[in-house]
Amino acid sequence: MRAGRLRTVEALTVGRTAETGRGRRSTRLPRGRTPGRPGRRLTGRLPLPGQAGRTPNPAQAPTTHQPPEPTPHPPRQLTERLPLPGQAGHTPNPAQAPTTHQPPEPTPHPPRQLTERLPLPGQAGHTPNTAQAPTTHQPPGPPPHTPHGRPPRRPTARLPQPVALGLAQSFARPARSATTAAAVALATVTVTFAVGLALTLGAVQTQRMLDSSAPVVVETGRGQGGPAGAAVVPAPGQQPGPQADPADVAAALKAEQRTRRFYSTVQGEVQVSGITGRTAVVGYDGDASWGAPELVEGSWLGGPGQAVVTQRFLDAAGVRVGDSVTLTEKGRSKTVRIVGEAFFTEDDGMVLLTRATTLTALGLDADAHRFHAQPVSGTATSAYLTALNEALADTGAVAHTNVDNASGVIAAMDALIAMLTLMLVAVAGLGVLNTVVLDTRDRIHDLGILKALGMTPRQTVSMVLTSVTGIGLLAAAAGVPLGITLHHYVTPLMGNAVGMDLPDAFLTVYDPLPLALLALGGVSIAVGGALLPAGWAARTDTAKALRTE
């Protein structure tokens, strides 16, 4: 019993425990020595636990150290000659002993330098290893949506750098950009509406008088209205002028080679059913469709027994287009049918237009009082008048240009519209100026950094102006249609206020060229409001800008 205890104590002193057989002590090995190969260090040739090639022995006794078998020849340097696990040529040995390290077979040729000879992942000739461990990093291939694996380029990559920075600045502060856009859009809407209203008023000024489309008028000297047989009474001290024969005047006009077309008119007064008092009537002889007033509804005179009136006349008589009215004079009556509604303001629009034969049926003088002529295109009006007056010298008729009876009210409205438009444009420009000044002062430190990196004053001006140019273009693109819509809504209301309907020709006054100019006008307002802040930013000293917070 005592001998067994001594053996146990001796084994504990040595640092080893007995594995099998009582009374047998384990042999204590020198530190760092291997049996059969004295002087060899284990740490110099064999892999340590945790290194490549080291396989733990699950069957090893927990208390007894089993040294590896002696190596028949010195091992090679694993880091120089042998492929590492995961490289080409390395094959794991499933039958390897759990506790014995078996070095791989020698390589007949030294391995090539991987970084020089072997293709890298992503290059031509590289084949991925599908059996590789899942922890191996696989570099991603080129994106399928970009050619040649190149990353997609930004839309502003090809723009100059100041322009790209200016466009990006527009989206940096959405609230201020919206304020600038609102100011520019308001100015664009105002200018578009003002231009359309001015064009409409110009058309009203031109077409408000009857027969205003004829550039030349020939006076025969006969009375302008009244019952049949009425004559012109000269003023005191004046001799009555000669009265030309309408047939002679018509012959002279036909004989003149530079006359393109003409027609004649005669005036009178009759009683119209539904209208209190006498009503002026104008009778037409010949094709007067080219000199007729603008039609709102219906058609022009096409034969006897037809009439054309204004909206004011329809309201006063209580009729509409398609109805009939009766004309009465000296016990004679003639029923005419209203075939069209026209726009004109002569005699407050209370004039009935019909054929000259209608006046003849009522017993009125139907001889022409005036001839309205149009010369051939390209003919000077003065030369035509000179030749025509020479031909009419023996008839007693006189030719002159059509007098433009301009309305002072319309002229005053045009001036007022222009003044209000300029004021609103100035307000919009000041709004853009205020917004750009605030934005430029807030970004003065960034401007200093850009200047320190080499941005020139000209590039600074370009960047600031570009930041509002895009906003101005978008605002103008939205403001022009809004201005047109506002014009189409307000202008008919103005006509209804005076009891007149406006023709469609007075509303469709916008041509493509004016619309393009209006859109550029919105951009001009934005750029004009940003000129002063852009100049201030270009003149700012770089060091002062960098010190500003």
Automatic annotation (TrEMBL):
Biased composition (Low complexity): 44-64, 91-100, 126-136
Highest classification ranks of the organism: Bacteria, Bacillati, Actinomycetota, Actinomycetes, Kitasatosporales
Protein name: ABC transporter permease
Keywords, alphabetical: Cell membrane, Membrane, Transmembrane, Transmembrane helix
Compartment(s) where it occurs, according to its Swiss-Prot or TrEMBL record: Cell membrane
InterPro entries: ABC3_permease_C, Lipoprotein-release_system
Entry similarity comment: Belongs to the ABC-4 integral membrane protein family. LolC/E subfamily.
Organism of origin: Streptomyces cupreus
Region (Disordered) residue spans: 15-158
Keyword Transmembrane helix on entry: yes
